[in-house]
Amino acid sequence: MQLYRRGIHMKNKMNINTFIAEYAIIIIFIVLFAAMSIFAPNFLTGSNIANVLRQVSINGICAIGMTFVILTGGIDLSVGAIIGVSGVLTAMMMINNVNPIIASLISLALCTLIGFATGL
Known about the structure:
There is one protein chain. By secondary structure, the protein is mainly alpha-helical. Helices cover 73% and strands 7% of the residues. It is built from four helices and two strands; from the N terminus they run ββαααα. The protein has helices spanning 16-39, 46-71, 78-95, 100-119; strands at 2-5, 8-11. It has a two-stranded antiparallel sheet with strand order 1-2. Helix 3 (78-95) packs antiparallel against helix 4 (100-119). The longest helix has 26 residues, at 46-71. The radius of gyration is 22 Å and the shape is flat.
């Protein structure tokens, strides 16, 4: 059986160099995960996992928004700036004792208006 991968005619056999080249990032992740699990006693605790998920949630939300921008055929660098404006505006309102839900809705409305303006 013959395989064609990346325009190069290859046999069905995969040597160790090809395997490492294809899966290097996954191998590095597994090694780092195992090392941190052994050497850091708090690494696999629920609070650490929740903390990591909380920290990457903003990037995940931004990535979802950018996915829609890219799928519609545009590359808009202002999305990151609008996220920054949203965070600062929401934080400023919450510092001034505005209800967090109201602060989030106002920030969402303002950022929607900014996004609409930059889209035009």
